[in-house]
């Protein structure tokens, strides 16, 4: 379909969250003044912090409004971006350059585009098990999920919760329940919580969780949910039944790429939409950003799909710059992530042992115990740092940190080192900040790098 | 002088603090078993944290013993290192490979060496002004200085203090006085406190200081100290007199290289001992480490003398490894430093504007205000990040951070980026950790890098 001469150039964005709205805003900043921008959002809210949902549930954050960076009115007023909420994109026609939409009232439309951004996000893994749709069983993927769960806790006042899945969201939800004085059991299919850490580091998380009064059950594969009058009352595994008045599913997510696949866009081995470094898909007029894409892992050099708001923001910005006629490229990821469970901070970057092995590396590891401040300084907390380095080259492959307050953000040094393909010998020599309130004279990550350098070559 | 066949190889270390004792310990670990190690220390204590002295004075740290990592008995017992305290090295004979020493009793000795480590540290800049030696005027260079000052505060109970010099030590001492409820005025010869920051960032420090109840006086050049019966009662500048019952001098330090110079070792333009990357001096049997050496600044590519325990430790370790027959090199510095003043954290790395100009760079700068946590997360504190990047290349040249708790350690990402000569465009794209308790979705350093990238090319 040729664009008629009197038409304004038109950008359509599918998905009104981090990836999509970053692309839209940046295209507005960088693009031609007459660019028309339409964003389609299936749900009610735009541009909210999905990462903040556990804190909303735990009442660390008081109102859902706090999590919303910009609402549709703000986009309309400040960016001249029209957001149509409650509107689902059901089909993309790459030939005709149109998107078929249906709104809540059932009204269908055909939206033409010159540029299209697919930012459809991720879908939570939800087990197809008996009772999985019972009242009291919640996902916490969207802001609406979070609001509903919070209301349920406020009105029902459950005393026992079960969290299925001991990853980031599972731990953050466990914290939320603890904050609200609700007893919580975390069931995980693996040996330890935080399966993106090695089990020896995950064990530290389990020990801390247990001390905080949460219960962790390893190798706990859920077989179903027992209900009473349509409401959940217990979670069943192969060998046990855990009573629960509320259940949260935190089983991870996968790219929501069905729409893109149906349109004929190329999908990669991770299930994410394939994009080039400018975030362009296999169709030259279509871009993609956020949890629905797969991206390049700089250490494994393999495609990965990592659902994280920070990547979505950067990718959306890159897409928007390119759509606007500028040049920007997304450099990939190194697998950095962080969270906390009450006073315990947890972070990782690069490859863990299983990932390094699967990427074909041989490696050495080291684990050191140190402190977040000089040992003699008040509130010096314990921190454990584990590093992996390639055999012979000594190249840093990954790092994991579990420790007290101020422990987690140290992972950024390791992420920066990975980005630059540094060896642990080089890392050990770096000029990092030192003062007694901030670290021992050798920062814990330097100690770890130094010890690993002695071993890795 | 030929070493006699039956002599054990012998390492002599001049200076029993961070640089010297790191070298000695590492030589013990890596060197031949029969290596004899003698360390000469002019003072009473070995291997203590000089950076901890302000916290000792402010009683954040309770006992001087807390600051001592290892005492002479520990070195003797665990490392077979003989430490002779109260013993000054007065002369080095490079030809004969001997050190002349005098102890407190006046006994003189000639110590032969096969390897010598010069780790004589730094001397504080002390103005030769009337009254500078009065009772109540203190330096805080050595642990003994700190102990004496603390005792003076305990016994005399002064109500007003003046700190001369608004740099790291000056600010840390101001904190110590505030902690003890002593009114404090900081006099500085420049426009703002923290002269290693640009004045616009220093202004933020001044504003915070003032809110904390400390007084800062710019352009205040001290002309003398008024005394009453030999005890200080005021500090005089060209245009004012500041009453003070206790005065601390924090005017920086310079390399203590007199002994090395007299021996004929090469001294550089900074006044520090010249060493190669293995920490070897101009004499092949003599090594040096710590505050007495000059080192390579990786950004300016010029020699610098930076007195900091973390460098001293690394350099000592490098020297010790090489003395022990291994290979290690010191990669230089990027000028990273951090401190705090009560709840305010301050950090810098690389070059500030004046330093960048003097190194011949043309550059762009950006300053951004952000938060240490997601804006909606409780206790999200303000943080200001300033970055400098070279014109045309966009290469990061330096960074400065002033902000609330958890602000300072972010400088390590910038230090790592400088180490790797990254551009701000690259920095902006990096995969740093994100979770609401730790940072906004774009970490403040990423926001700054992103904004500067838009401007630097």
TrEMBL record, chains A, B:
Domain named FAD/NAD(P)-binding: residues: 10-307
Is Oxidoreductase given among the entry's keywords? yes
What keywords are assigned to this protein? FAD, Flavoprotein, Oxidoreductase, Redox-active center
**Ranges for domain Pyridine nucleotide-disulphide oxidoreductase dimerisation:** 337-441
The signal peptide stretch is none
Gene3D superfamilies to which the protein is assigned, alphabetical: FAD/NAD(P)-binding domain
Q: Which cofactor does it need?
A: FAD
Query: What GO molecular function terms would the record report?
Result: oxidoreductase activity
The family assignment reads: Belongs to the class-III pyridine nucleotide-disulfide oxidoreductase family.
Specify the protein name.
Answer: NADPH-dependent 2,4-dienoyl-CoA reductase/sulfur reductase-like enzyme
């Amino acid at each position: 379909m040729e664009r008629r001469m009197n038409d304004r150039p038109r950008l359509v964005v599918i998905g009104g969250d981090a990836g999509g709205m970053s692309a839209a805003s940046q295209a507005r900043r960088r693009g031609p003044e007459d660019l028309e921008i339409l964003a389609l959002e299936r749900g009610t809210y735009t541009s909210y912090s999905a990462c903040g949902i556990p804190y909303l549930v735990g009442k660390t954050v008081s109102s859902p409004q706090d999590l919303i960076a910009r609402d549709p009115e703000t986009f309309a007023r400040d960016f001249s971006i029209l957001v149509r909420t409650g509107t689902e994109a059901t089909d993309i026609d790459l030939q005709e350059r149109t998107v078929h939409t249906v709104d809540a009232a059932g009204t269908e439309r055909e939206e033409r585009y010159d540029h299209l951004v697919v930012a459809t996000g991720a879908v939570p893994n939800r087990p197809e098990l008996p009772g999985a749709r019972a009242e009291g069983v919640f996902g916490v993927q969207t802001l609406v999920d979070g609001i509903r769960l919070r209301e349920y806790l406020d009105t029902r006042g459950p005393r026992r919760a079960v969290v299925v899945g001991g990853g980031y969201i599972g731990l953050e939800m466990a914290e939320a329940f603890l904050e609200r004085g609700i007893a919580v059991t975390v069931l995980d299919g693996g040996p330890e919580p935080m399966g993106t850490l090695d089990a020896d580091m995950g064990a530290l998380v389990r020990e801390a969780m247990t001390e905080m009064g949460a219960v962790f059950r390893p190798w706990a594969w859920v077989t179903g949910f027992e209900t009473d009058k349509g409401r959940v009352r217990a979670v069943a595994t192969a060998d046990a039944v855990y009573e629960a008045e509320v259940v949260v599913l935190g089983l991870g997510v996968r790219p929501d790429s069905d729409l893109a696949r149906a349109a004929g866009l190329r999908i990669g081995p991770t299930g994410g939409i394939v994009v080039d470094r400018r975030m362009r898909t296999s169709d030259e007029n279509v871009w993609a950003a956020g949890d629905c894409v797969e991206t390049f892992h700089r250490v494994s050099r393999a495609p990965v799909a990592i659902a994280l708001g920070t990547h979505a923001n950067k990718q959306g910005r890159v897409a928007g710059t390119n759509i606007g006629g500028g040049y920007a490229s997304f450099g990939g990821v190194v697998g950095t992530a962080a969270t906390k469970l009450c006073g315990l901070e947890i972070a990782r970057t690069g490859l863990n042992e299983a990932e390094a092995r699967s990427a074909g590396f041989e490696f050495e590891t080291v684990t050191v115990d140190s402190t977040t401040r000089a040992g003699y300084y008040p509130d010096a907390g314990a921190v454990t740092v584990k590093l992996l380095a390639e055999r012979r080259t000594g190249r840093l492959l990954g790092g994991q940190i579990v420790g007290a307050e101020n422990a987690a953000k140290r992972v950024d040094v390791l992420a920066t080192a990975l980005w630059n393909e540094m060896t642990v010998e080089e890392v050990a020599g770096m000029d990092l900040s030192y003062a007694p309130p901030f670290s021992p004279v050798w920062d814990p990550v330097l100690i770890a790098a130094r010890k690993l350098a002695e071993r890795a070559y």
